[in-house]
C-alpha cells in the first residue's frame, strides 16, 4: 500500500491531486481564521438576517392591535430607527436600481447574490428615491420598510469573498510552485540538453530524474539518441568502407590510363579519375567526425585565424586577417580550424582577395570570411549548406568541390552551438559569417 502511494505521488497526476488537497486544507484553516477576523473587525449588514428580522416584525405587527403596533414599532426602532410603516401603494415607488449606487455594491450583488429565504417584498434589490430598502408585507394595506445605510458591503459577501480570495491565492501559489518544480524546470532542462545534443555515441544526455512522466520522457529521448547514433555510425562505417575499397581499383585505372597511347583520350581518362579521387577524399573528409569527438578547451581564437590566413598567404593567396591580436575563449581548436580553412578555400576559389575579420558583438564571437567573387543568389543560400549541392550558375569552375565544404562547416559550428550565415558583401562578393557563443562549456 505504501509503495502504491509513493508511486502515485511520483506521477504528475498524483502531484496535482496532492496540490489540490493541500490547497483545500490550507484554504479551510486560513479561511476559518479570516472569517472570524472579518466578523469581528467589520460590522457589515447581514441582509439575510435583516430580511428575516423585518419579516418577523411584520408577522408580529399583522396580529397586533393599532395601539400595540405603535409599541412594537417603537421597540424595534430603538437600535437604529430605520423601520417605518407605509401604505401598500408605497411599493409603486420601488425601483431595482439607483444612480447613486456604488459599482462595487452592484458587482457584489451580481457575483454573490443573497440567499433566497426569506425574500423581501419587491426583491433583494429594492430602492426608493435612490435609497436601498428591505420591505415585508404586514397586511393587505400596509408594508413594513427598513432603510439600509447609503454605502455598505454585505457581511456574507465579505466572508464569502475572503474565503474565495484565500482559496484562489493558495491555489495559484501552490500550482505555480508545482509547475516550476515538476514541469517547467525539467522541461527546460531537457530542452537545454537537446540543444547541446549531437548524434555521436556517448553517455545519456537527458537527465533521468523528476516525476515518472519526466523520467519516462528523458529515458525515451536517450533511447532515441542511442538508436540514431548507432544507425548513423553503421552507415558511416559502410560509406567509409566503400570509399576505401574504391581507392584500389581507382589506382589500377590510373595506371592503365597512363599507358594509353592516344594523348587526348589519356588526358580525359586521367581527368575523370582525378575528379573521382577528389570526390572520394572529400567524402571521407565529410564522414570524419573528429569535430564531434574533440573536447572544447580554452584557446586563442585570434591566433587560430591568423595562422590559417598566414598558411593561405604562404601558398600565394591574398588572404588577410583583421581583428584583435588575442581573444581567449572556449572552443574546439582543430574543428574550428577545419571550418575556417574550408571557408577560405571556397573564398580563394571564387575571389581574388579574401578578408577574415574577428569581432565581439552581444557576447558572441563573430567571424566574417569575405571574398570579392560572384556571390551566391539569395534563393540558394539555404540549399548550399546541404551536402552535395552546388550552384553552378553562380560559381562555375571546373576545380570546384562537390558541395561538402559548407556542410562540414555547418556541422562544426552547430557543435559549438553557433550558426553560419551567408550575406551579400557591400561592394560585391560573399560574406560567410560564423557566430559563436563565447566561453563554450
> Which superfamily, in CATH terms, is the homologous superfamily of the largest domain?
Histidine kinase-like ATPase, C-terminal domain
Oligomer: single chain
Q: Please provide the count of β strands.
A: 11
Amino- and carboxy-terminal Cα gap: 45 Å
CATH topology of the largest domain: Heat Shock Protein 90
CATH architecture of the largest domain: 2-Layer Sandwich
Return the average pLDDT rounded to an integer: 78
**DSSP strand (E) fraction?**
5-15%
Number of helices: 12
Question: Can you offer a commentary on this structure?
Answer:
- The chain has 441 residues and is an alpha+beta fold.
- It folds into 4 domains: 2-42 and 159-191, no CATH class; 47-153, Beta-Lactamase; 212-287, Orthogonal Bundle (Helix Hairpins), CATH 1.10.287.130; 294-437, Heat Shock Protein 90 (2-Layer Sandwich), CATH 3.30.565.10.
- Helix content is 53%, strand content 15%.
- The chain is built from 12 helices and 11 strands.
- The protein has a 5-stranded mixed β-sheet with strand order 6-8-9-11-10. It has a 4-stranded antiparallel β-sheet with strand order 1-4-3-2.
- A hairpin with a 4-residue loop joins strand 3 and strand 4.
- Helix 2 runs antiparallel to helix 6, helix 7 packs antiparallel against helix 8 and helix 10 runs parallel beside helix 11 (333-350).
- The radius of gyration is 43 Å and the shape is rod-shaped.
- Its main location: membrane.
- Keywords: ATP-binding, Cell inner membrane, Cell membrane, Kinase, Membrane, Nucleotide-binding, Phosphoprotein, Transferase, Transmembrane, Transmembrane helix, Two-component regulatory system.
- This is histidine kinase.
- It holds the Pfam family HisKA.
- It is found in: Cell inner membrane.
